[in-house]
Write a structure and sequence with these properties.
The protein is mainly α. The protein has 16 helices and 3 strands. Helix 3 packs across helix 9, helix 7 (163-183) runs parallel beside helix 10 (216-229) and helix 15 (288-306) runs antiparallel to helix 16 (312-356).
């Protein structure tokens, strides 16, 4: 019989890893890209430029963490509860990010531009990735990937969140992602997400290790995902840096970062980081989602505007610090108060729907038996960059979110 593993406090460890992933992405955009500087950055940052070219892998780390924490958080929850937690967590900071980015780009349209107000309005839905509407900020593409993962999660919830069904998901998703190049079916390609599936799937396997215990099946799933993740490294390099630059770059640093990320999440899953309880990491982790949302177009515009007046290293440090401070303000003044109100409103809506649903349709989804230890108190519900305590359930300390 499987025994359920109790969590220590690994919230700080997850926050720390998420913060590191967010800063990797910021480092990549500010130091590796030519766009804010108007020229190649290898002469501006001769050494840092080499490392920064691999910073885009922070997004893959977000997806790995997301698979882990979302799987942990859905046990014992209904679809309605999951939807409320996601919507109330994602949208307040996202709307603030769109507003600030739009104001910046309209005020200083020197490094980025907006085609029309229709683009801004459509972006407010977070569904622009599904109807070919440009993103207000290029980093928003990852949110649509996350939304597709949530939809896959909802399908599993409808069948019941059980150990067996999670393993079936891992197997079916792995097969679909691996066969995409041969099948060439648009719908399967869209939802199998072969470039990112290995990270989500490995995260799910790690969460099962944490919830129950490691075994040969789960380790086989993880190792298979590590190998499959290597398949698209060249493609991701080409997308982020261009084919010529990608061809000239060694791939081993990217492979090392991927393996290291798997090892770190595995260490968290197996309890090696349970003793990390630094409170400042929890605060820092709360900034990752708003930081991710606002850092690119706003930060690049600031760098572009002041690049001839301030030395490059100082400018990058100053803009990064400003983005962190702005992210903290968004977290305190927008995420927390608006998130609470939105959560309360949505819960009332869900309760109203339940009251009006006929009894035979009102049955709760089949889930694993709920126990007092059924939800891991240190688990984070993750998207690229979010970190916050979900106070929806008093006895649960989840934080929801690349």
């Amino acid at each position: 019989m499987m025994t359920e593993r109790r969590s220590g406090n690994r919230l700080a460890a997850l926050d720390g890893l998420r913060l590191l992933a967010a800063l990797m992405v910021v480092f990549y955009h500010y130091v590796a890209l030519a766009r804010p500087w108007g020229r190649a950055t290898d002469t501006i940052f001769p050494t840092a430029h080499m490392a920064a070219q691999y910073g885009w892998l922070g997004v893959e780390v977000f997806f790995l963490i997301s698979g882990y924490v979302i799987c942990m958080s859905v046990w014992g929850r209904t679809v309605g509860e999951f939807a409320v937690s996601r919507l109330s967590r994602l949208f307040p900071a996202y709307w603030a990010g769109i507003l600030l980015t739009t104001v910046m780009v309209k005020t200083w349209p020197e490094a980025a531009s907006l085609r029309s107000w229709d683009t801004v309005i459509t972006n407010l839905t977070m569904l622009q990735g599904g109807n070919n509407t440009p993103d207000v900020d290029p980093v928003y593409w990852t949110l649509f990937v996350e939304l597709k993962f949530y939809l896959i999660t909802v399908v599993v919830m409808l069948f019941g969140v059980t150990y067996r069904n999670c393993l079936i998901l891992c197997g079916v998703w792995t097969a679909a992602a691996a066969l995409v190049p041969v099948l060439k079916t648009p719908l399967i390609t869209e939802f199998a997400m072969p470039q990112y599936a290995p990270f989500f799937i490995a995260g799910i396997a790690f969460s099962l290790m944490r919830r129950h215990r490691p075994n040969a099946i789960l380790w086989t799933i993880v190792i298979l995902q590590v190998l499959l993740a290597q398949r698209y490294i060249g493609d991701r390099l080409a997308i982020n840096l261009g084919e010529a630059a990608a061809a000239a770059l060694p791939t081993w640093p990217a492979r090392f970062i991927i393996v290291a990320a798997f090892a770190l999440v595995g260490a968290i899953a197996l309890g090696a980081c349970d003793r990390i309880r630094w409170k400042w990491l929890t605060t820092a982790g709360a900034l990752t989602y708003p930081l991710y949302l606002i850092h690119m177009n706003i930060g690049i515009t600031l760098i572009h505007h002041y690049r001839d007046r301030i030395s490059a290293p100082v400018l990058v440090a100053a803009v990064t610090a400003l983005m962190l401070a702005t992210a903290w303000l968004i977290h305190r003044l927008v995420e927390r108060p608006l998130g609470r109100r939105l959560r309360t409103t949505l819960r009332r809506g869900v309760d109203d729907v339940r009251r009006h649903v006929t009894p035979h349709r009102g049955r709760a989804p089949r889930t694993a038996p709920h126990t007092p230890t059924g939800r891991d108190p240190g688990v984070a519900e993750d998207v690229p960059g979010t970190a916050e305590d979900d106070r929806a359930t008093a006895h649960t300390r989840t934080f929801e979110s690349v």
